[in-house]
């Protein structure tokens, strides 16, 4: 165990303004920093301990789906994108983590509302 360090590849995805970069920077730097939305897609690699956060699905061990719990208007879009992701053949053996972000903000969807709206029980 002492000499066996396994590297894991993880992709972080989510709609704009979900909190992907802020969460990654918190993990990487250990502190919350103010971020600004990228004008286009942001492709950035990050290594934290023995975990490599990747920008492409191929060969990834896990996918973290980040959702803004206050984004009630786009819940159907989030569901469609989640199920599109799950159907991809490269994801058949990957672990999927659904990160319900911004739950501390007023009027955020509860975990029960999110679970029902996204049909998470059928995954």
For the structure shown, list the relevant keywords.
single chain, 123 residues, alpha/beta, Rossmann fold, five-stranded mixed beta sheet, 3 helices, 5 strands, 24% helix, globular
Integer-rounded radius of gyration: 15 Å
SSE order in H/E notation?
Answer: EHEEEHEH
Strand content: 15-25%
Structural class: alpha/beta
Overall average pLDDT = 77
| End-to-end CA span | 33 Å
Helix-residue proportion: 10-25%
User: Please, how many helices?
Assistant: 3
Counting DSSP E segments of at least 2 residues, the number of strands comes to 5
Question: What's the architecture, going by CATH?
Answer: 3-Layer(aba) Sandwich
Strand order of the largest sheet: 2-3-1-4-5
Tell the overall outline.
globular
Question: Mind explaining what this structure looks like?
Answer:
The chain is of the alpha/beta class and 123 residues long. It has three helices and five strands; from the N terminus they run βαβββαβα. It has a five-stranded mixed sheet with strand order 2-3-1-4-5, covered by helices on one side. β2 and β3 form a beta hairpin. Keywords: ER-Golgi transport, GTP-binding, Lipoprotein, Myristate, Nucleotide-binding, Protein transport, Transport. This is ADP-ribosylation factor-like protein 5.
Gist of the model:
InterPro entries: P-loop_NTPase (IPR027417), Small_GTPase_ARF (IPR024156), Small_GTPase_ARF/SAR (IPR006689). The chain has 3 helices and 5 strands, in the order E-H-E-E-E-H-E-H.
